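Pilot study result, target chain (333 residues):
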Amino acid sequence: MNYIGSKYSLLDFLQETIEGVTGYKTGDPYVFADLFAGTGIVGRTFKQNGCSVIANDIQHYSFSLNKHFIENVPEMDDSLLEHFNSLEPRKGFVYMNYCSGSGSGRNYFSDENGMRCDAVRMELEELRSKGEIDEGTYFYYLASLIDSIDRYANTASVYGAFLKKIKNTAKRPFFLELLPVIVGKKGKVYNEDINELVKRISGDVLYLDPPYNTRQYCANYHVLETISRYDAPELSGVTGLRDLSRQKSRFCSKKRALEALDDLIRNADFSYIFLSYNNEGILKLDSIKEIMSRYGDYSFFTREYRRFKADKDANRNIAADSTTEYLHCLKKG
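Predicted structure:
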């Protein structure tokens, strides 16, 4: 997925720095926590490296992705793929609310692909309710559906708006494709407020990648959230937003982010804490240094990387093509 804040291009930097600071090497059996997990790219990398991974995210679509990547281990049952891809299209919640043919006024997917998505999602829920598939299999296919349908979305990139006309990539007939199953130890995944969860868990390395600005992930990916939950929420406005009041992050608020970070670091029962943050975030770098230095030995490392551009036209007035990523490091005292 083309995901805001993805650390895919920074994985080498993260691994090298974490190894250098902690002394842990690939294959060492330590506990690694990724508590702003997003699409799970960092957690599943450390799972492959031999870690016992704890993952968390307040967004349910992220929870579903990580339930598969972190908790599932080979071999998974891929025999249902042909069944899902041969289902008759159904006019479910996705078609009725995110496709223009239903009269919703929204154009997130082509009519056919919206109905194909509904067919898979409804069948998956029915198989689970009947006890015909277990939890691991359920999240294997649900995560794959979330990842697959995103490639057919009729958006510039995120779901803050849809395009008026169906673009070529969104016209392609939708087919479910299965995600890889990550080799490694079975981990544990949560869907909770991080500041509450951190009080109940412990480990060796805590990696934090909070939102850097005021744009809430729940608004940018609300359609995927609804597909993941499939809870028929009441939608509002032109873009069809669901009620997001319980999913807004304090780290997107200039007034609340500093206090939330201090609370998080103070309550974290981990030997090492690493915080990713760039030079354009709402938290000042000196403020981060001040907070983390209160709780142990602090240092930081930097790396330049290319800016995420959801819409090139919207970003054409931004002078810099790259930003500086800071990896703040704390050895708790």
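One observation from the pilot: The chain has 13 helices and seven strands. A full batch analysis is planned for the follow-on phase.
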